[in-house]
User: Fold these one by one.
Assistant:
Number 1:
Amino acid sequence: MSTTSVLFDAPGPRARVRNGLLTVVSIIAVGAVLYGIYRGFDAKGQWEGRIWEPFIRWETWDVYIIPGLIGTLRAAAVAAVLALVFGAVFGLARLSDHAWIRVPAGLVVEVFRAIPLLLLIFFIFYLLPTVMGGGDYAFIAVVLGLTLYNGSVLAEVVRAGVLSVPKGQSEAAYAVGMRKNQVMRLVLLPQAVTAMMPAIVSQLVVLLKDTALGYIIAYVDLLNTGFKILPAAFFGSLIPAAIVIGVIYVALNMALSAFATWLEKRSRRSRKTAAPPVAPPGPAAVPMGPATPGRTALEGME
Amino acid sequence: MDELIQYGPFLAEGFLENIKLALVAGVISLIFGTVLVSMRVSPTPVLRAAGTIYVNVVRNTPLTLVLAFSALGLSDTLGLTFSTVPRVNSFWVVGLGLAAYTSAFVCEALRSGINTVPLGQAEAARSIGLTFMQSLTLIILPQAFRSVIAPLGSVMIAMIKNTTVATAGGYLADAAANMKEVFDTTGASIPIFLGIVLAFMAVTLPVGYFTGWLARRLAVVR
């Protein structure tokens, strides 16, 4: 909270009284909102033990929530690995000296970043059966969609990471007689990876969150088992179910985000790289310099 | 190509709904995001905590869950309705759900803008006797807004792309829902997909260039 202290003075006696009053008023306001929500739930009987009871039974977790969570994590893990590979290949291809590699790679990356992810998933979901015959393609559609979109964003991260290594590093490497491939492999990439790490992890948070889009094409993920199948089995438990799986999602993502913050602090402390940390580029199109404030505000949006 | 021409009007109708949703969510999220950031930097710890909790919870919840919960939970179960016409009601449920989600990101963008306003500005404002609200609305926020136009632009682009998730909120009239409906009869059609993608790019690219231009034009010279 370093910013807050700037906006107002250390309070004197009168300000303390005023702040005290404001605190009381805001407690009442926040309390009123919470009470309003409580009453709204109460009026519709959402606090009845009957509809919360399934969540203290092991079968509910065993049959619905855990398989859904596994579905979510499976899609996220496969898509994360593929997206990292896609990102590394296309990020490096965009840095190529040959225009015939650089230009198509740039086109692919820019197009897939601009497509709304849900449309991409729908398209793949409908395209696969016509190309490969019948079957259940929900998993492949989710994974492929997530890979293409997040891979493109990661490609930008890789490119920004390599470009953020000071020029002197590659010049020095060329001066001692290294080849292009050696400069990239031995000098630029090791430093870039350190700078990219926080941005990569926050993009993986986005990927994990976006697996929930699978719900729309009926992929069996946490949102599907928890919010569609579970309330159908326990009539009336819709809102408790939403709260429980909401808590699971928030906890998962916050843990990953905390990991990203920790990585960033660590890489800032142990300066093994000459490159500054890279911010996630998001859907782009808006040209932003490395010094633009709030570049990271998009973290986690999509 | 014939399919795109045949279903073009139907798809364009859906795309228009995406634009309407984006306008509603854009306006509301900018206002609510500003309120949230004022709460997050206010001298009152309760408001600070409430703002922080809201932003962290909303930012880490999938938009699909936010919209599905708004539709099935808030609207159907708890009876929060905006209109008796189901279609109009769905529109506002999705629009407001999207606004609630986007405002958390608007708040974060603005907060990093506030961080860039030099200390001296706030100190000068206090020294001439401005209160917290005055220094925030007259000195800090105008400068903060100007320095984060580009990130706000990319938040808005992401929001425009996110309007396609309206399907999860039960609003089955947008471009994604219409595309799905057409695909149900024709099967996957590359021209239709590319047509919708180009329509989205035709909106997001100008927004990007406009906010980029505005950011350069309004940049605070320090």
Note: Chain B touches chain A through 83 residues (CB under 8 Å).
Number 2:
Amino acid sequence: MKKIITLILAITMLLAMGASLTSCFGGGEIYVQTNAYFAPFEYYNGTDIVGVDIEIMEKVGQKMGKDVVWTDGDFGIIIDTVAEGKTADCGAAGLTITPERSEKVDFSDPYYTSIQYVILPAGSDVETKTADGTTYIVWEALAGKTVATQTDTTGWIYADAEIDGEGGVLYGTNTKHEAMDSANVAAEALGTTIDAIIVDELPAQYIVSNSTKGFVCYPLYYSGAEGEADEPVIEHYAIAVTKGNTELLNAINEVLAELLVEDANGQTEIEKMVMAHMGMN
Amino acid sequence: MNFFNSIGVLITNEKYMGMLFEGLGTTLLISVFAALLGLVLGTLVAIVGISGDSPIMKLPKLICKLYVTIIRGTPMALQLFIMAYTIFAIRGFPKEITAIIAFGINSGAYVSENIRAGILSVDIGQTEAGRALGLNGKTTMVKIVIPQAIKNVIPAIGNELIALIKETSIVSMIGMYDLTQAAKVIGAGNNMASYVVPMSVAACFYLAIVYLLTFAIKKIEGKLRAGDKR
């Protein structure tokens, strides 16, 4: 009898310890999952993660009176962790809204519109087109090339559909698609084993302006049908929130609405942040 | 020449070196504690593994066998992933502890096999002699077999420690700021925009740690083998 009582007491104590452990780890904080290799939206400055998404979430934290805790990890894990909601309340990593992702998480209002870009090495023979003063590249121009993207990013999703997917623009044209750890790793091999990198507009410009190897970048377009203009590959960034967490979702949307108001010069607060982080204000 | 210039730029840059040392701290922290955990776990598992075939030991033996089989048979990266995103998926749980536990458990499986091999490598005649002199089983093990086994085990354990230190480089996968992560960050577009240079410098750091460790192990081995005529 004594033993049984001791056992019960021991189990209760363990459970209580577990409960207090959980409560001391999770309190008045917002946990945000990110992938800090996406300048200017999130990147390491020394050992701190900074960027546009960080500034946005700090404002959300101020609004809700909570501290914001950042967790860095693989890009591919963000949607899963946010969907589960165990270690993160939301994900801010320049996430593009896609139907598949929307099934798992709630997206905030879009706060940035990006175009897919192609980075090319100096002296590349990839053909460019010009219309209305914009120089761009159509998918067809990449035929037969080795194209790199960061695994699971929208660049990867597009390339996977157009190069490896049946019915894609470049399917069966002997074009190769390589998935890399990040666009930066791909940039290391650009010009030697890789002919082009598909990545979002701003990171592309960041890589081109910081590299000493004379890279160039152009927007990526879909060829229009006969008589129609070519269309850029557009996407919208938003913050992913665990399904059902309307309090946080509303707070994020309120902050984004404030940041998206245009000032007298027609510039929004978010555009200014982007410029500041790109070092061109 | 550009490569060496860039290395010069990196090692004279206070911010970049600060980042590398910060990363080095994490790498050492994980390595040291994981190694300690691995040694303790490994020794326990090895002792269970070589213990006699009494019925009470059946279950612990089975558990230890399963542990070694599973841990040695699956990739470290996957184990770390499961630790970080399933088992220790607790808000604010320090990632250092997650990593130490993941690497400690992994290292323990290898260490246990090394220790088991070391103990078995001591000639059975030593045990027989001990028992013939009237020592009991436990004393024979502690006073006669284990001291000889340690000597045989040291090189293999050293090998495992070296492998462990280098393997911690995968913690950047779960977003930890270790030496490899620091090198990646320095190589990112907003810093040097070149991976090869910071990675090479980080490699030198790893080499230095491993070299120091090898040196220490050689010293210990030399001391233990002082009485041997070989």
Note: Chain A touches chain B through 39 residues (CB under 8 Å).
